[in-house]
Amino acid sequence: MQTAEKLRPFGARDKIGYAMGDLGCNLSFQLISSYMFLFYTQCIGLTTTNWAWIIVVSKIWDAVNDIIIGGMVDRHRLSKKSKFMPWIAIGSVGLLAFSILLFLPVQQLSQAGKAIWCLLIYGLYTTAYTMVNVPYGSLHSVITEDPKQRTSLSTFRSIGAGVAAVLVMLLPQVVYVDNVLSESRMFLVAVVFSVVAFFVFILLRKMVTERVVREERVEKVSYLSTIKSFFTNRALLAITIATFAVVAFHNSSASVNNLVFQFYFHDAEKASFAMIASYVPLLALMPFASTIVGKVGKKRFIVLGGLGSMLAGILMLFLPITPDTKGMVLYIAGLMLVNIGSCVFQIIVWAIVADCIEMSYRKKGVREEGSLYAIYSFFRNLAQGVGSAVVALSLSAAGYVESAPVQTDEASAKFKTLYILLLVAGLAVMTVSMKFIYNIDLKQEQAFAPANGDVAETMQGE
């Protein structure tokens, strides 16, 4: 047993190390969110209908394995030194392999063969991703208990995700050849991203210190008890609903934006500029996130950002965004404003989840970080499946023909409208959920700070 004084104090090393985790996760997650649908429909030749059912089945499995793996993380400690790092180490190996195989050019297979390959490899990928992401998300609560430090961790996690996002934003300059997506270049990108992700997970494990280590309780907590804890935690339900909306309608629609530039503006490479502009609010807000949260609270910060972005999105629906350079500039500027709300959410969502898990502990007196985060992740992954299926079917209804090298002008215009509507819908649900359901106020957030700045629980080291 080691005292708190002998542990390295919380600092920049933890923040940077923690950011490495979301950089690694998002190198695959962002790539898949933005390009997997396009790769399998445009390059491999999978039909939109097959894509829709494959993604739903895969995400149902993904959601279920979140809970299974979360329970395993809570109930089976693989190392005396760390509760979470061994799981991340194991999962990162699978993530390396299946992220590469997922973009293997298999267009020579039959339609049934393509569907089976996609379903199998994506299912294995999601299992490996869960084995990394669930313990990584839970890691947040054992690095520190101080709310301000948790907010800084959440901010740095967003930086890690942001770096991955910027790299994905630049991909249109690489993966399109004469406005056509190249399967060989997509595979090369998948190899590079996967290898980099593997090594940044090593940096995560080397740089972060788990300093809030509690003595394990003798009694075991059942899955039913954990599920009850989740559904009786109003704040956790609210952030789960908000996350579901953002992931389903915002994150899952990234491929639609690529189609807007490819077929409406007839310049797929320019999608990079729209993606970069969308992240300008994230970069602008990050340095001030902790200060703003300290003054207005996490709830109000998200609600204000969501309302402003909703209004900007509604305005975009009525603006004359024409398929020329002038219209493209107007479209990109509008997206920058619409994304303010989601950027605010992205910056502080993980600090909110940590607060919700802390609230559960204070009510119940039992630590269930892994299991509660796994249930939250269950709905997050379910949202990916629902969102991807809705996007695919909506595109089909709008006239998208996956095998066609060009789309009709009418269909292309509908892609633009569809993308804006999806963003507004996600923002609306997020804002309503945080305004009327979420019930942790600024005073409660501050009350989560340990007395006199000390960690309230028993701490141990190597």
TrEMBL record:
The chain crosses the membrane at residues 84-106, 112-134, 155-174, 186-204, 235-253, 273-294, 301-322, 328-353, 418-438. Keywords: Membrane, Transmembrane, Transmembrane helix. Gene3D superfamilies: MFS general substrate transporter like domains. It comes from the Bacteria. One of its GO terms (molecular function) is symporter activity. GO terms for cellular component: plasma membrane. InterPro entries: MFS_2 (IPR039672), MFS_trans_sf (IPR036259), Na/Gal_symport (IPR001927). GO terms for biological process: carbohydrate transport; sodium ion transport. This is Glycoside-pentoside-hexuronide (GPH):cation symporter. It holds the Pfam family MFS_2. It comes from Candidatus Eubacterium faecale. SUPFAM superfamilies: MFS general substrate transporter.
